[in-house]
Amino acid sequence: xxxxxxxxxxxxxxxxxxxxxxxxxxxxxxxxxxAGGRCGRGQLAGLLGYSGVKNGxxxxxxxAAKMFGxxxxxxxxITLTERAKKILSPVRPSDAExxxxxxxxxxxxFRKLFEDFxxxxxxxxxxxxxxxxxxxxxxxxxxAPALRNLMDSAESAGLFxxxxxxxxxxxxxxxxxxSGAPHAPVAPAPxxxxxxxxxxxYRGQYSDSRNGNGGGGQTGPDLSGVHPALIxxxxxxxxxxxTLGPKRRSALIDAFKHTINFIYPxxxx
Length: 269
Description:
Blueprint: H1 21-34, E1 38-39, H2 41-48, H3 56-67, E2 71-74, E3 77-80, H4 82-88, H5 93-105, H6 108-117, H7 125-134, H8 143-156, E4 193-196, E5 202-206, H9 228-235, H10 246-263
Antiparallel strand pairs: 1-3, 2-3, 4-5
Helix pairs in contact: 1-3, 1-4, 4-5
């Protein structure tokens, strides 16, 4: 007797979406704009242009949106998550930026790569492909789409913003402020301070002479040689004496750490 057996398709060890973050955001956006924030599977399939709820493309699209934490299903009803609402209807611009970053890190494969190369130069395309195959155990024919969607999603999440290119994954500096609100005034820095030379030595006492008074007026230090990323961080620090929660304190420390890693990279072998 001949028994027909079906060989199961190989599966990758690490989960990842078959659609990028931007493409996945289109799913809750359609539900929000054309279905009033909730709909059934059949309605969503129609909105996305698929033939039905059993269509492979539709199921893959749903899976990606769920993996990013953008939609949730309760029975026959599909609704937006709080993360998706922050992206589509943010109260502050920083809400959408943070929600996109959280969506990227919610994907197991993307989070692993970020943790392994946080602030360090990424391998070339061939090296990343080999990493996906050997370390992350991605099925060979899934490596290319996994890598493409990871890089596109990292771009959407702002992880290439600090580096200015796709060479490093660096957590973006997200300013937690209201849209259009003026910056908090920065207290003038003391003019009689010691500054470091580029080689690490001290220049001695420093007086600001930008206004021609030789430091006699109340002016801040000359920051012309300081990287703009560091200046932005310093200018947006809470006022002295402010209390910080553990999450906010950790976020500030991480922001400085990633900025320093970017400005002063380690020597590479």
